[in-house]
Amino acid sequence: MTTTAQPAASAAQTSPLDEDALAGLAAAFDAALAADSRIEPRDWMPDAYRATLVRQMAQHAHSEIIGMQPEANWITRAPSLRRKAILMAKVQDEAGHGLYLYSAAETLGVDRDELLDKLHAGRQRYSSIFNYPTLTWADVGAIGWLVDGAAITNQVPLCRCSYGPYARAMVRICKEESFHQRQGYELLLALSRGTPAQHDMAQDAVNRWWWPSLMMFGPPDDESAHSAQSMAWKIKRHSNDELRQRFVDICVPQAEVLGLTLPDPDLRWNESRGAHDYGPIDWTEFQEVLRGNGPCNEQRLERRKAAHERGAWVREAATAYAAKHREEEA
Ligand code: FAQ
């Protein structure tokens, strides 16, 4: 969508628009969606579209930075220098993803500090998956294979999201996520082909991470409050259940190569659907995690708040440095 054809969002918000002008802007927005072009920050957009993007992008950004914690737990205990270097790079990548996403959210007129305050106050969500503990080294592999695998399945379609800055951030993020997924797969393969104890450790990790990974895609379609509208706005391109099914179908042959089983007795190929059937997901557990009652909710949020407080001096120094340079330039 061009940014010159219509008034910038800020202008539209400060000067009251008459009904005809507003109808024209809404029609231009609808036409841009219909033509599959991108909505850019200076374009007019409905308030609800903006609010939906802020909600999803903030939740996504928060997930990336809270998602550093479960794996960071293993950096000091990685079994070799190679594994440690890979894991440190991966955890750093997640921080970077958070930064791209907070920056992209800021193009919608929200402030990063405000989003972080809401996260810390429990007023914005982060992904349910990061409230589970990493009990053994194999969990690092299971997170890479399953959690990053689920993240990519969900995020590749977001590269075609109607909001330009979000879509562009996702292109870069997805490239890095596929490296993350591969490293997890390779780690699990090494364990699975190792000693019987290592194989059992890998199997145990997959048993614990499989069902929470399926929950990452969100509630079933008939209980998904936002899907219909988000799909109409082309923010989401597929429903939660469609992406979950795609993920299951990808994982089944990969598990076979790994020599590991997926912990679902109902998992089987359905010839007529051309897809795998899978067993019922425990949505009560999902709702409990969302309510703050998962195994690690409290610990994750406390660590995040402590890290934020400890980083205050860095933010102050960066602000002072920027102010000094502005003065010099002036
Ligand atoms: N966890 O109506 P829907 C990663 C909430 S990044 C917590 O279906 P929507 C990388 C939802 O917010 C992982 N809450 O919602 C990594 C809504 O609540 P509200 C994060 C959830 O937005 C890997 C309510 O339930 N990825 O893993 C969850 O249309 C390894 C109703 O749900 C993204 O954020 C959940 N799983 O669809 C990092 C991707 N699911 O606001 C470190 C972008 C739903 O009404 C290590 N987000 N809820 O109170 C999306 O694609 C969507 O937001 C969905 C949910 C699909 C997550």
Automatic annotation (TrEMBL):
SUPFAM superfamilies in the cross-refs: Ferritin-like
Entry-linked InterPro entries: Aromatic_CoA_ox/epox (IPR052703), Ferritin-like (IPR012347), Ferritin-like_SF (IPR009078), PaaA (IPR011881), PaaA_PaaC (IPR007814)
Pfam families in UniProt: PaaA_PaaC (PF05138)
Protein name as it appears in the record: 1,2-phenylacetyl-CoA epoxidase subunit PaaA
Species for this entry: Actinacidiphila polyblastidii
Gene: paaA
